[in-house]
Design a protein that fits this description.
Structural class: mainly alpha
Number of strands: 0
Distance between the termini: 22 Å
Number of helices: 8
Strand content: under 5%
Shape: elongated
Radius of gyration: 18 Å
Order of helices and strands: HHHHHHHH
Largest sheet: none
Amino acid sequence: VAMAFELHVGPYRGRDPRLAEGSRGIIANPMELFEASKIPLATIADYLRDPAAYDPEASWAAAILEVAGPTDAEAFAVFADNVRSSCLSSADAPVVGQALGAFAFRLGRGEGQAAAADLAALADRLLAAAHHLLRGPVENTALVDDCRPWIEAFEVGAQAIRRVADLAAEDRLATEARSELRPWLVALRQARVRVFGDALDMTLADLTNLGA
């Protein structure tokens, strides 16, 4: 129950290849979301098959392709990159986290227009993935149904990122961030599911001067 707000679909990671030398087996603790749990379970199977050759990212990509289906794998992978929350993963949303960090850095250097353009391009990619998954058609409807609350919050976050980019492009971020972005921050916090880790929440909180 304590982790019910997290969607654990990231790859199996953080285990030494020599684990089998010191243990008789491992315990996998999947979610109650049966279809979504197939993705991390597939990566666990890859690790157990050949620990020395196991590549978490390659295994994860293959698992998403198999479970989501070839038509929807790309969109699902874009979404899933933002729900990697795990006690063994320091990067909850690596692509978005890096992009927001780069945006803030470039904004501080007076490169607002270029920073806004790059962030807008990413936001559009996120929005396209959310639209595809939520409005289909999709091959594995059970997978999308399992993940729907997180995908919906993911779309809200993508809209917020796009709004940040638009305000920066219009040179209105310094004056209108609080009024324009506060509703997005509130909506994300009210969603009661974890998407984008802390990266987007912290960015919006900083821009609107709102704490936790």
